[in-house]
Each structure stands twice: as C-alpha cells, then as structure tokens.
Specification:
The chain is α/β, with parallel strands linked by helices and 179 residues long. The protein is 16% helix and 28% strand. The structure holds coenzyme A. Residues 90, 92, 126-127, 142, 144-146, 158, 160-161, 167 line the site of coenzyme A.
Length: 179
C-alpha cells in the first residue's frame, strides 16, 4: 500500500517537476523530492543519487543505484531485468534501457527473454542512446548520442552508431585511476 502511494506520488507529481539544475531552489527541491520518493521504490540505493525530470522506470523494483548515479531526463527503462547504475554514472536525455525481448521464434511472440544490464562506474551515456538486454557498459566508457548498444562495451571505450562500434579508447584521466 505504502509503495503504491510512493508510485502514484512519483508518476502524478514528482516526475513532472522542473529539472534539478534549473530555476535555482525550485529545481534543487524538485531533485530532492524525486530522490526521496524513488528511494523506497528502487531495489537498492547507495547514498546520494539523482533522478532527472521525466524518468520512467516502471515500478522501480529492478533498479539499483550506486553512489552519485544519475537517471537522465526522460529515461525509459522497460523489461523485468535488473538495471544497475554504477557510481557517478551520467546520462543525457531520452536514453532507453530495454532488458527484455519478446521471444522471436514463438508464434505470437509469446514469452520474454530477459537479461540484466550493468552500467559500470563513471560511464557516460549520450542522449538518445539505446541499451539492449544483457549489456555491460564498462567503467569510464562513453556511449555516443544515438548509439544502439547490443554488445558489451569495455572499460574506457567510446562507442558510437547502430550497432555501436568502438570509435576510440579513452586515455585514462589521472583522477580515474582511483576507482
Ligand atoms: C561520442 C562523443 C563523445 C565523441 O566525441 P569526440 O571524441 O569529440 O568525437 P568527434 O566529434 O571528434 O567525432 C569523431 C567521429 O565520430 C563521429 N561521431 C561522433 N559522435 C557520433 C555519434 N554520437 N554518432 C555517430 N557518429 C559520431 C563524427 O562524425 C566523426 O566522424 P568522422 O571521423 O568520420 O568525421 C560525442 O560525439 C557524443 O556523442 N557525445 C554525446 C553528447 C550528449 O549526448 N550530450 C548530452 C549531455 S549529457
């Protein structure tokens, strides 16, 4: 019952409040409120995290947020697989994470194939990227805007395109070596 109330409060109110980086204190409080409501909805949270305006993650039971992880503006998470968002992960707007497929060989596509998604620490997901089931985005990796990621991305790789391919491997910034 309590969970249902948090769910309704999020989808009918908190989700639509201003972006957390706009309108000074109003944005700040909007972000705080979203965090407060999402905390009990998510499977597991670790300290501070952020949820940007318009993020739609279903019931939230399959979302794990590590410290300083961020769900981007208008993010859409679909499917029943667990989505783990690592420490300091950043996302641009309109990212999609799809953890389930309909069974392609079944008559009427009955049933689902579901695999978890892991976005590892310090990764950056560009605007409108699509991340498909079973993918691990490596630490400090970058997914370019509009990329469709169907295979694992290794640590420090920068991937672009559909299907996403390696553009280059990042030179490791000094600060990254700590984690
Ligand atoms: C992936 C990204 C980080 C690469 O940046 P970069 O290293 O400066 O890359 P460049 O601009 O030098 O482009 C290198 C090549 O990749 C191509 N490219 C870059 N980003 C691309 C993308 N998202 N999709 C397809 N091709 C892309 C460029 O056209 C260029 O191709 P060319 O060598 O044939 O001319 C950047 O392009 C990107 O997509 N950033 C995401 C921005 C975003 O979503 N911001 C939201 C705020 S969080």
């Amino acid at each position: 019952m309590e969970r249902t109330l948090y769910y309704l409060f999020y989808y009918f109110f908190a989700k639509n409040l201003p972006r957390s980086y706009e309108l000074g204190p109003f944005g700040k409080w909007s972000g705080r409120l979203r965090r407060l409501v999402c905390r009990p909805l998510f499977k597991d949270v670790e300290g501070f995290f952020s949820v940007e305006r318009g993020a739609d993650f279903g019931g939230g039971r399959n979302i794990i947020m590590r410290e300083y992880a961020g769900l981007g503006e208008n993010l859409r998470v679909m499917g029943t697989g667990t989505v783990t968002v690592g420490r300091h992960v950043m996302m641009g707007p309109d990212v999609m994470i799809l953890t389930s497929d309909h069974k392609a060989n079944e008559e009427g596509f009955d049933g689902y194939v579901t695999k978890d998604v892991l976005i590892d620490d310090h990764a950056w997901i560009g605007a409108r990227a699509i991340i498909l089931k079973g993918v691990r985005i490596g630490k400090h990796a970058i997914v370019g805007a509009g990329a469709v990621v169907a295979r694992h991305v290794q640590d420090h790789e920068v991937v672009i395109g559909n299907p996403a391919k390696v553009l280059r491997v990042r030179v490791q910034p000094p600060d990254d070596r700590k984690s």
